[in-house]
Amino acid sequence: MKLPKKVKVGGHEYKVLFPYIFKERFDSYGQHDSAMKEIRVMGVDSGGQEMGESGITVTFIHELLHAVDFTTGHQVFTDNEPAINGFSECIYQILVDNGWLKKETK
Predict the structure, then answer these.
(1) Between 81-97 and 52-72, two packed helices, what is the crossing angle to 10 degrees?
(2) CA dihedral 80, 81, 83, 84 (to 10 degrees)
(3) pLDDT at 36 over 60
(4) Is 28 helix (H, G, I), strand (E, B) or coil?
(5) I want to staple 88 with a disulfide (CB 3.0 to 4.6 A). Which of 27, 38, 61, 94 is the partner?
(6) DSSP for residue 15
């Protein structure tokens, strides 16, 4: 999946920064910043290896769900990273297996 440059969530326009290099932390592959209206996604893991298309897409979905959670005010995923990880993986699987998202091949 080619990540978009911008995405709207609840009427708010978020800038998508990819690939993003975290200078402030080293334990994250992505980040949702509600104040800056940014979704940041790395292209490599903590060991410097490329994440691959599926890892990048799942990370984007994960951060997008954080944006939805924040925008709706429900805070279902606040302090519940295992839940959002599971939802992200399942949404990715549904999109790919039903042909709504094509896996890139190199």
Answers:
(1) 120
(2) 120
(3) yes
(4) coil
(5) 61
(6) E
pLDDT at residue 106 greater than cutoff 60: no
- What is the side-by-side strand order in the sheet with 30-33? 6-9, 12-17, 38-41, 30-33
Q: Are strands 38-41 and 12-17 parallel, antiparallel or unpaired?
A: parallel
Which tens digit of pLDDT belongs to each residue from 42-76? Answer: 988 767 788 899 999 999 999 999 999 999 999 89
State what percent of residues in the chain have pLDDT above 90: 72
- Copy the structure tokens of residue 88: 């992200």
d(CA 87, CA 106): 27
Cis? peptide before 19, omega within 30° of 0: yes
Joined together, the tokens standing for residue 90 give: 């399942």
